[in-house]
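Review this fold:
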Amino acid sequence: MAILIKTAAQIEGVRKSSKLAASTLKHLEQFIKPGIKTIELDRIAEDYVRSHGATPATNGYKGYKHSTCISPNDVICHGVPNDYELQHGDIVNVDVTTILDGYFGDTCRMYNVGEVSEYAQKLCDITKECLHKGMEQCFPGNHLNNIGYHIAQHAHKHGYSVVYEFCGHGVGVKFHEDPEVAHIADKNTGPLLKPGMIFTIEPMINAGKARAKVDRKDGWTARTIDGKLSAQYEHTILITETGFEALTDVYGDF
């Protein structure tokens, strides 16, 4: 495992790209309404990213043809934008990665489509809390896998499962770098965190079973095996001398 320690110039480049990725998600808020197709949201996101001098990292990645991943309800991740019209009561995740001046920023969040059920809202709330529990473990000298350990502890305490088939990852100079960031892991294991590391934390939390199944039709969309809801939040994280900086946090969540 070769974890890249970013230089000051690289950190600044990743910071700018990360802020653009996050502002793209904020821009989409006004369009998340019943009746809009996920393919339309994808076009809006792409236009926004390109209008700011950047390109969407997913467009053309391993044959993927879209600028975002959009994952409603039982879709865990990698949902392919299509003609599905968002329905009142849906929960939906939008994941965007930008390339700005050669640097990558990666983030995702959940949106409510109209008023959602208490059941769905609790899942989203706990998933966001899981992300924050992982972020609290981001400081120099800590073991990487304590991120996943504390995420899983919090999810399980509330009766949810943690998807283990997908993980976070190093990011910045490339779309995917070392290390892999597990969201369920053994305590006090894995490499030690060092200033200059940049990676994503992106827990996927299921209301039912943890397993995923990938649609054969498109080869990307990963759904829960039992049809129950899934939620995900993601930040790009920089390890600093004293702790961390959430490079994609334009909401002031942390």
